[in-house]
Amino acid sequence: MLGETRVAAGGAVGERWARTDARAKVRGELLYAADQPLRPCLDVVVHRSTRPHALIGSVDTERAMAVDGVVAVVTGAQLYKLFGNALMTGPAFSDQPCLAVDRVRYIGEPVAAVLARGLAPARTAADEIEVDYTELEPVHDVDLAVAGGPYVHDVLRPSVVFGDLKHLRGKRDTNVNYEYTLRRGDVAEAAAAEGGRTVHEEFWCPPTHHVPIELPFTAAWRDGDRLEILSATQTPSYVRQSVADLLGIPLNAVRVRSAPLGGSFGAKMYDRLEPLAAVLAWTQRTAVRITASREEAFLLTTRHGAAVTGSMTADKDGRIVAATADVRYDTGAYADVGPRITAKSGMVATGPYRVENVDVRSRCVYTNKPSAGPFRGFGVPQVTWSHESLVDELARECGVDPAEFRRRNLLREGDVAPVGTPMHSADFAGCLDAVTEAVGWDTPLQREEGRLRRGRGVAVGVKAVLTPTIANAVLQLNQDASATLLISTVDMGQGSDTIMAQIAAEALCLGEGQVRVVAADTDVTPYDTITAGSRSTYHTGNAVRRAADAMRDKLLELAAERFGVAVTDVKLTGDGLVSAENQQKVSIPELLHGHFGARGTTLTTEANFTTSWVPYDHETGQSERVTEHWFAGAVAVQLTVDTATGRVHVEHLAVAGDVGRAINPKLVEQQLTGAAIMGVGHALFDQMVFDEGQIVNGTLLDYQLPSVLDVPDKITPIIVESPHRSGPYGAKGVGETTIIPLAPAIANAVRDAIGIRFPRLPLTPERILTALAEQEAGA
Amino acid sequence: MTTDVQMTVNGARHRVAVADDDLLLDVLRRLGITSVREGCGVGACGACTVLAEDHSVSSCLARAVRYDGVPLTTADGLAEDDDVVEEFVAAGAMQCGYCIPGFVLMGHELLAQNPAPTREEIAAHLEGNICRCGTYQEICSAIEATARRRQAENERRSA
Ligand code: FES
Ligand code: FES
After folding, report:
1. A 683-722 → B contacts, CB under 8 A
2. Sorted alphabetically, which InterPro entries does this protein's record hold (chain B) (predicted)?
């Protein structure tokens, strides 16, 4: 057997290859899901709840049915009769029906669906539906929901997928659907020690929206006993399982295809439009298409609003000795993946520091709002907002420079994190050094310039990659030396098609453009857990690398046979296969043609990559192996605050991420920069505003997103590489790394500029002006 | 009420029946022109941008009937060797790509009005287009590069 450790010499990894489909993207010729030609489909529009919490009496569909072009109107109660509890879907809890059955839990929840020939009659008819409600008392505030009733769900319904949620089954009279605790050492004792200093604060991150510019889209049609779905989804393998469970049919009776996504950031995953499209196509034996408008997209999922009560204690030598966090995630009406977010964020809620005494309680809480789900960072930006604000204040309390204070306390290679897992390939200090150097941290700063106040801030972030997960790859080497790669990873702008092509090309000495990635299609491409959580480069990348290595081994064997030499004597080079012993040479096309005796043939290999973990202890949250690897990032910023307008202007933003090894530095820089720009929005203005459960800014006229004018004067993306021992060529993912510490870095710089700590996001001009006025009044 | 209109898109003429309230965006997509896309439906993102006689229009707000006979350009209809497209590709000015055709057309409009825009002028012109992936720097660089390229070509021609 040929070992896995041999170094390939392909010259693909580390190169700035152009994105696959670059030209098609620029010319608009790439087809996203809604652009693809389809068989004739009925358009589906849903009628939505106008109440945050109510029992559904009758649903009057008569007037809707009378609208010209309407084919059917379907209610949740009708579907429940057919599917029973299988109608309730969700990745962690089976709590969400695609149409409300007997009760609505948020304003905007789908209650009935109209199928019509054309969008216009479908919309008209949806407006004609009348629902008779009996109002229930709603709960909007996360802390009121923790404290007691009203309860959004009568009983908790954890899904069968996760064994570790079993103990919650049937639990009543609570809005807390999951709780993670992390305990280590003795916080009270450490905090009471002589000469120590403690800071504490109540933090708040509002709900925000992903707003990928591509709108959600799903089409589904029934062919005999098969259901086919074309959907803008990050999770085709998940959707296949979820729909098969819902309809009670085998996995091979469901085909899910995805397409390149026009951005997603967590918005297009798990159960979005797919369950509704599936049940309508299945029960009506027809083809349907659901195109969400932007206003509807705001209702499909959000980023969790989160309250964090945190503290941090340093001893007299400036070592962080204790930290606490009480985190409440507002998950809205349905749990979605909130329980997972609660745990994954709870385990890093005290930050990337060596702390011996920690106490974290992280809870996932139902309220009467649209369901919150995964968003770039998976809940970690919300806890980072707390620990990076606290550590900054603590440094100031101790009279130490905030960057230096962090440097002294950061986890280093081999250190054990508070969660109990050792650190590897997570160079926080390297990231911190790089960003502070980039902004000239130690150089003098002109603090005042007319009405402007200038400041600098820094923050560091840590996140654990989703573990355990599964990735597979099938590689076909065509006789002409081009290759076709079958994976279920979805390219949504992160560039995974390009990255995977480079990983495959490296082992096979193929060039740019020679490896083509097939768009996810569950009939063809193998299982992959999800395209999310920055996991693809490492996990799918490892599967691809293994498949490519296996392919190389096959080629070496074929060539050795042909040359009549030992396998160890043959080398694969850019020019083909060469024997060191007798100097014979053969190109890949010649070799495969000779082997098969035909043109156009394919040689196939496949590989799996699965990670494992040690589940965390339910009392202490500790695990010696809670994750496969860590993300490490840092941000430093220099900005001005205009004391007359309250506006923040970012002069220089330096962002660094430890990516293990950059497979494609250009794409890594775009991820670092793109996440940073999104983070600037979160820091300064991005938020969903609710009034009694009603979104008040759910259109793009009202919801502010970073435009070209919000881009900092200068952005310096910095790639830090501390290779991971089992990453493909040392690589790890990068999509979330710089959004995690972005908002606190900006708030810390604002603190530096005007001396005010803001515990609530975002730092709008109004908030800043109010705080400045209070500061002046106090002074 | 439907009206028979002539949509002139990228030089090709199509006779289509449109209702009074049909949006230009929907009519173009019905014609198979999918480089024009909806992102917001309220004129706030630029994903649906088309050029009507060299002026940018948000097709999600425009009534199709008003464009009877007006020459329209969409990104997919630009010349094979279009310089703005080439500079976008060279600059890596795309991530998911969904917003990019709109920016390409905005670049064309700007450069037709102002052959040597400053970085600030470029930013001011692109303010209404949203790239959620955050590709703004590359987009601006690509437009700058096109301006330089046109200037160099002009100099070569006049030399
Ligand atoms: S869809 Fe027209 S501007 Fe957004
Ligand atoms: S490239 Fe994705 S929105 Fe611009």
Report:
1. 699-701, 705-709, 711, 715
2. 2Fe-2S-bd, 2Fe-2S-bd_dom_sf, 2Fe-2S_ferredoxin-like_sf, 2Fe-2S_ferredoxin-type, 2Fe2S_fd_BS, Beta-grasp_dom_sf, Diverse_Oxidoreductases
